[in-house]
Design brief:
Oligomer: homodimer
CATH superfamily of chain A: Phosphate transport system protein phou homolog 2, domain 2
Largest sheet of chain A: none
Order of helices and strands of chain A: HHHHHH
Structural class of chain A: mainly alpha
Number of helices of chain A: 6
Strand content of chain A: under 5%
Helix content of chain A: over 70%
CATH architecture of chain A: Up-down Bundle
Largest interface: A-B, 26 and 26 residues
Radius of gyration of chain A: 20 Å
Distance between the termini of chain A: 19 Å
Number of strands of chain A: 0
Number of domains of chain A: 1
């Protein structure tokens, strides 16, 4: 197996990690701003979230280009190959998380036009968990930390439970107060978007587990470390 | 640039395409069965959809393995490199479409427990459009047909419009008949799932457009054809 001591190759890998962490930071910020626009009823933040989306798309393209370049110029060995191809999958998960944050503010914008509903139940908690899962899954990726990846997968169950509970509570609210139907339905959508953000973080974590376990079996050790 | 006349390499690429088309067929069938379980109020079909999901997951892994093998053993040139890495992205889109079909039957199962609501408005139309988009996007991929990929992107706007219309109609139904709130909310979720299936088909189509246009610019011609 090649050892890839080539400096440009190592720099390329480093830059790939940095791009992925950067993209992670941007989408985490989008989730936080989107929830702030809802909780603070601040529709000015809506445009701020939407304006970040092209940056996310550009980062996806930059990551994919970097991956293709690493694959084309350096013919990486099996372990790095998997790392780089997971980079391609992660860029896609993060791009979707950006889109979902935009979907959240689109709903928040409509909700904010009507009178305030009661406090948003467990939505902020759900958002905070999902956001942390994104951060932790990317940390697990760059550190190849399988335990952290497994923790992310466990939190996903909590997020799913919160989503089910929020769904039930909002259906009950609608039944009591049909005036709240549009807003409640949109809050259900927001919960669903958060649940999907958590799913994407779980996807990332699962890829990491597969990457590390797959490699452990085939090669006995990890050849690429920070 | 290598010409890759190697027979094993060509066979590997051919097998990659076949796996992707196979995975496409399975998820298209899942969408169709999921909608049938809703429209025919046939909860026996629910298990049939859920049982296909492990097959989808296996196909995703098989496709990824085939991509990694092609990348590792054959060091493909730029144009094939992009084709193969798009294969990795498509496997993920298709896997999500399988999951979304499972989400649809989970909702259908709950809806079928209650009395029938009025006919399901434009949901079957939306499902049929989304399903065709999946098929057409994969055809565009194996044929590298940019015009077909562009047509898929256009149909996505129609699906988005249907989703907006269905949302409005179901909110109106809930306001008139609070008894329908649980079922209507679940129908809104199903519409959302279908809209996301169409989004995944659009993702695939956009990747193809980028693949072909990107390559046209860089290489002036396509080196890999069926």
């Amino acid at each position: 197996m090649n050892l890839h001591t080539d400096k440009r190759y190592e720099e390329g890998l480093q830059s790939l990690k940095e791009l992925i962490l950067k993209m992670g930071e941007v989408v985490e910020e989008m989730i936080a701003l989107a929830m702030k626009s809802l909780v603070d009823r601040n529709s000015n933040l809506v445009q701020e979230v939407i304006q970040r989306d092209p940056e996310v798309n550009d980062l996806e393209i930059a990551i994919d280009d970097r991956c293709l370049e690493l694959l084309a110029l350096h013919q990486p060995a099996a372990s790095d190959l998997r790392f780089i191809t997971i980079g391609l999958k992660i860029s896609k998960d993060l791009e979707r998380i950006g889109d979902l944050s935009v979907n959240i503010v689109e709903n928040a914008l409509e909700i904010n036009k009507e009178p305030a509903l009661k406090p948003y139940i467990d939505l902020p908690k759900m958002a905070s968990k999902s956001q942390t899962m994104v951060k932790d899954s990317l940390d697990a990726f760059v550190k190849r930390d399988i335990l952290q990846a497994e923790r992310v997968c466990k939190v996903d169950d909590e997020v799913d439970d919160l989503n089910d509970r929020i769904f039930g509570e909002l259906v009950a609210i609608m039944k009591k107060d049909p005036e709240s139907i549009s807003r409640s339905t949109r809050l259900i959508s927001i919960a669903k978007h958060l649940e999907r953000i958590a799913d994407h973080a779980t996807n990332i974590a699962e890829e990491i587990i597969f990457m590390v376990k797959g490699k452990d079996i085939r090669h006995g050790k990890i050849s690429f470390e920070e």
